[in-house]
Amino acid sequence: MEREAAKERIEALRQVLDTYRRQYYLDNQSEVTDAEYDQLVHELEGLEKEFPEFRSISSPTETVGGGLSPEFKTVRFLKPVLSLGNLHSKEEFFEYARRVEGWLNKPGPLPWTMELKIDGLSVVLDYQEGRLLRAATRGDGLVGEDVTANVREIQAVPTRLNAPISGQFRGEVYLPRSRFAAINGDRAERGLPLFANPRNAAAGSLRQLDPAITRERGLAAFVYEIRELTQGPDIERQSHALQALAEWGFSVEPHWRLCQTDEDVQAFIDTFLGERPPLDFDIDGLVVKLDRLDWQRELGATQKSPRWAMAYKFPPEEALTRVQDIVISV
Ligand code: NAD
């Protein structure tokens, strides 16, 4: 592509992606599917790579998507709440794993934990001596929305843990499929607009000014990360963190596995790409995380995502033929 044409396309893509982000994160709506959105991001990444003079730190490829509704108090994070980079095939995973081995200068294969990527919305939870103090959405990754009153209405998020733990944890709030079907059935009977998917329904149900509405929607949540532990045992592996989180009373998605070899990783991916075990929640992929937390710290993160973890996104179920039209029509 010519330089001028590339510049125009980059600008058009950034504009359309910003619009989709606002709709998705602030209005809990999507005009395009996630696969269509991801395809546009992929195109923008390609152009920014080819024409690095047009790169920008505020591009959707470099920033954590999200936003802040003026209706909520804000919470500033001491450590950014990041997104994840994407992998789309086993080959891409193996290339990534070899890169990580090179960065760390360690012979592979390294141990990876593999988890399900729950399609909900990210929350950050603060506990003091085992009591839930505060809950926030991811917001723009630096500042989130205070949704403590609403999260207290989610039964799966303990207001008291089984141990006097203090720290910050990260998880995903989601709407079980069975609840989604029931809520939409009820809305249809009452002539109300239906929710497009469980993810948007979950986001709309959590980001409510009236916590009673959150309660009646029947949200659930899984916790998958210790961001900080100011009081509690020393934990040096993600697999140990998942076990400890469950022992303390958090709801932890149980299908995760510690994979020690490339074959283990391959088998885990195959299980979830093929005939999946039945789940009462949507997943949009898997997450691979370096198991050792000291190595995670050594690798650190970019402005947008950690270098020690990746989302393994499932192939889109629908064709992406609309993508070109979408940008052109903006
Ligand atoms: P992401 O959803 O691709 O990955 C990061 C998120 O995964 C984390 O924030 C976390 O909330 C979640 N997650 C779920 N399970 C996890 C686990 N076990 N471990 C770690 N993280 C886990 O990235 P994102 O920045 O949150 O969102 C971008 C995605 O959102 C896009 O790729 C697209 O699919 C979707 N999106 C869609 C639209 C649209 O208009 N359709 C607009 C914006 C974004």
Automatic annotation (TrEMBL):
Which annotated residues bind NAD(+)?
34-38, 83-84, 115, 138, 172, 289, 313
What positions does UniProt annotate as the active site of this protein? Answer: 117
What superkingdom heads the lineage? Bacteria
Coiled-coil ranges per the record? Answer: 3-50
Q: Which family does it belong to?
A: Belongs to the NAD-dependent DNA ligase family. LigA subfamily.
Q: What the protein does?
A: DNA ligase that catalyzes the formation of phosphodiester linkages between 5'-phosphoryl and 3'-hydroxyl groups in double-stranded DNA using NAD as a coenzyme and as the energy source for the reaction. It is essential for DNA replication and repair of damaged DNA.
The protein, known as: DNA ligase
